[in-house]
Task: inverse folding
């Protein structure tokens, strides 16, 4: 009976040690360099492309605030294959110099059609925010074809 008890205690101790090691290695959520967009300039305008959509955006910053505006345009594959949009969300993720997540802000939400979606938001910037990234998710539907989910989340 002592052997079974010692084996159980050993297995539990090993599990706890492994769990602590996994949590320690995970660290804070971050975004890889390839997905980071600089926000260091006082104002800037460009386009970001994802697999399912593109975001034409511009921002201007002053005194810890950023005005971020733009338009979401869906890919040809989505607009030609589907007619309805459900549960769509576009977010901006603010990051520090190491790509660590500081704050996530919703920019655009659900619409009925796969038409361009404008957005405009005034954001209070965390003091050490130097990058941002976009994330999105949604469902495209069509009565004849069914539906497809699409998403991009750069946080690891």
Result:
């Amino acid at each position: 009976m002592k052997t079974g008890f010692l084996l159980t205690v050993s297995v539990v101790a090993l599990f706890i040690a492994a769990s602590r090691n996994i949590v320690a290695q995970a660290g804070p959520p971050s975004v890889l360099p390839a997905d980071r967009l600089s926000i260091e300039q006082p104002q800037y305008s460009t386009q970001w492309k994802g697999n399912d959509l593109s975001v034409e955006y511009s921002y201007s910053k002053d005194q810890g605030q950023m005005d971020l505006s733009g338009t979401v345009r869906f890919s040809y594959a989505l607009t030609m294959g589907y007619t309805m949009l459900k549960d769509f969300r576009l977010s901006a993720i603010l990051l520090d110099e190491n790509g660590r997540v500081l704050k996530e802000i919703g920019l655009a939400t659900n619409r009925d059609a796969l038409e361009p979606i404008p957005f405009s938001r005034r954001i209070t910037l965390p003091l050490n925010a130097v990058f941002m990234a976009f994330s999105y998710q949604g469902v495209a539907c069509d009565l004849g074809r069914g539906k497809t989910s699409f998403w991009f989340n750069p946080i690891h």
In short: Residues 5-15, 19-24 have pLDDT under 50 and may be disordered.
